[in-house]
Amino acid sequence: xxxxxxxxxxxxxxxxxxxxxxxxxxxxxxxxxxxxxxxxxxxxxxxxxxxxxxxxxxxxxxxxxxxxxxxxxxxxxxxxxxxxxxxxxxxxxxxxxxxxxxxxxxxxxxxxxxxxxxxxxxxxxxxxxxxxxxxxxxxxxxxxxxxxxxxxxxxxxxxxxxxxxxxxxxxxxxxxxxxxxxxxxxxxxxxxxxxxxxxxxxxxxxxxxxxxxxxxxxxxxxxxxxxxxxxxxxxxxxxxxxxxxxxxxxxxxxxxxxxxxxxxxxxxxxxxxxxxxxxxxxxxxxxxxxxxxxxxxxxxxxxxxxxxxxxxxxxxxxxxxxxxxxxxxxxxxxxxxxxxxxxxxxxxxxxxxxxxxxxxxxxxxxxxxxxxxxxxxxxxxxxxxxxxxxxxxxxxxxxxxxxxxxxxxxxxxxx
Length: 415
Hints:
- By secondary structure, this protein is an all-alpha fold.
- Helix content is 74%, strand content 0%.
- Helix 6 (126-154) runs antiparallel to helix 7, helix 9 (214-231) packs antiparallel against helix 16 and helix 16 runs antiparallel to helix 17 (390-404).
- Keywords: Ligase, Membrane, Transmembrane, Transmembrane helix.
């Protein structure tokens, strides 16, 4: 009798919705609660693997082209990183190797979770989406509260549970954009859509001000303008003009510390030839030394070899830039260059295929707003290393998985 009662509970709809809610909770509180969100992500991964195995045994496995295009590059990306980390497990800079090993495992788990969430997205109910958007918005507000508290205590750029202010800026943006995508899916009244769009943008921008990330402050308004244009074109050009004016007003009111950092960009670029010991100057030195350190082989090189080559170049050609010399042992402040310098051609190719696949699926399914998520991650990756920390991999993959579960079942074709 107990078995008979349990069977109706273990339907694909119930399993899917349970996993979606668990992932939502993990994602929503990932920047304010340590450890447990990532453990929840692993739990979702194990439930997914058992479900996919059971569906295969029962010959009820769902084949979905869009899910494959998203999942296969994620799987390849994870496999390359795990294999590379095992080849160079004895490297002196073993913390770098371990970061990629942990991240690689999360990519592999994410490949199966992404396939499940996209291929079985017909199981996603409006009720679950409404609960999810409430959780994400609450998580965003909780993150804002934690950020204000941290800033009040330290008077420094916020980092929350991450390793840097730059890192937390793009993770916050992923959280905000995912909440926005679900809002657009479940909120029917257009006025409410606009109000929630504005509220999410304001919260996201306030958090960017607290990170003082120059890249985020400059990129974020453009992302939201594009999102508004793609989703709310019905509102007309006058609404877009008003939004532009509001964004311009918000930027005018930004804290003086951010204005000072923005003003310094041009000064630091102009003074690079004479004084490269600046934030921008160090990045130029890191990028140049990183490129000259690349080993053009299938699986690249160890972090030890990369660091030695990069530091030799910095000493010889970059006036021994102290900040660059110190930081090249960690990462190269550019995602593609970082991946190419360590995981070689295989790593770089899989990363490119990963981005192309995500953008292609979103465009093919006419989910143009969702396409902004991988585009934004790619843009942030031009000036930072996005995929090195396992916590970043977990949060960004949760964002991608949930966002791509919203795409249409069939592509819209023009008549």
